[in-house]
Design goal:
Layout lengths: L1 H15 L39 H7 L4 H6 L10 H9 L9 E8 L6 H9 L1 H4 L3 H13 L2 E6 L4 E6 L6 H4 L7 E4 L14 E14 L7 E6 L11 H4 L9 E9 L2 E8 L2 E9 L1 H14 L19
Antiparallel strand pairs: 1-2, 1-9, 2-3, 3-5, 4-5, 5-6, 6-7, 7-8, 8-9
Helix pairs in contact: 1-7
């Protein structure tokens, strides 16, 4: 029983939070400003390892990110940062426009963290009752699943691309005739990830602007699976696993620059992992103008503290 629960959790985490798993050492950390993550003056003498939590408003005021800084950030080099540094980047971003169309995804854990440790925190004693070898097998399973997300901006709905249903068969049952499919243009970014043109669409979610669970000063774009059973073409198996009767997955994203979003995945409002979403098409179409002006469309509330983006 415990192994089945954990397996389902890992599958849903991988599918809903995206994930092309890569080596975190593939790139060096971006050379951008950060506030100190440890304050020696305020350190508790009885707890010398205590880390000082940085105020996001102060970070944004004292260490604004320029367009050149934002242009340095990639899906690969974010994995070289600590979680505190990733959080500082997120706190200096606005939501930007709600995305539209297909995005490639990548998930990552901060330095020193792993799937095993995060699942241990989320699932409590369940992880402790299974062998570490089984968790490693599940990590390999996650790597083998091809993934992406497609946003339907006008409908305020998101769905996840799944290429191979065979690995999900235990969760799907025998009847798969009602699962939505779509055909991907082989000239698009997906041709680099898969030779197939037909993909399945599973795990729908609602899209809206809402309060960030990390930084309440301004809104984020929320990807909410809780009430996915109210969406068209909902399928109880496996979509319910991500919903309110399952793992209650909730993501939030903010825009680094046009075409690139930084996200945070939660289960039952407990933070699990970071992820990115990338569209080369949007980057090519809008990136140059953003580097010149630092301006972008905003669909969500940007807060009372004005964000400063220096132009380089």
């Amino acid at each position: 029983m415990h192994g089945n629960v954990t397996c389902a959790a890992v599958l849903v985490i991988a599918l809903t939070a995206t994930g092309c798993w890569q080596d975190r050492n593939a790139a060096r950390a971006p050379d951008i400003p950060f506030a100190p993550t440890e304050d020696t003056l305020l350190k508790d003498p009885d707890n010398p390892t205590k880390v000082f939590r940085v105020d996001f408003a102060e970070v944004e005021a004292s260490h604004p990110l320029s367009t050149a800084d934002l242009s340095q950030i990639t899906q690969a080099n974010l994995r070289a940062l600590s979680q505190e540094q990733v959080d500082q980047i997120y706190g200096r971003l606005t939501a930007g426009p709600i995305p539209d169309g297909p995005f490639a995804g990548d998930l990552f854990f901060p330095k020193g963290d792993s799937l095993e440790s995060r699942l241990g925190e989320i699932l409590g004693g369940i992880k402790g009752q299974i062998a570490d070898a089984e968790v490693r097998k599940l990590e390999l399973l996650g790597r083998s699943l091809w993934k992406g997300k497609v946003f339907y901006r006008d409908e305020r709905v998101l769905r996840n691309y799944i290429e191979d249903l065979a690995i999900l068969k235990p969760l799907l049952g025998d009847d798969t005739g009602d699962i939505l499919t779509t055909t991907i243009d082989r000239r698009s970014w997906l041709r680099f990830l898969s030779p197939r043109t037909d993909v399945w669409l599973l795990f729908p979610a609602k899209l809206y602007c809402g309060q960030s669970l990390l930084d309440s000063r301004r809104e984020s774009i929320i990807i909410d699976y809780a009430y996915n059973d109210e969406l068209p073409n909902y399928r109880r198996r496996p979509d319910a696993l991500a919903g309110r009767k399952g793992l209650n997955v909730r993501d939030e994203i903010r825009m680094i620059r046009p075409g690139l979003y930084l996200g945070r995945a939660y289960i039952n409002r407990v933070f699990l992992l970071n992820f990115t979403l990338y569209s080369a098409r949007i980057d090519a179409a809008e990136g140059a103008a953003f580097r010149r002006t630092g301006r972008t469309a905003e669909d969500c509330w940007t807060g009372e503290q004005q964000r400063t983006v220096a132009i380089d």
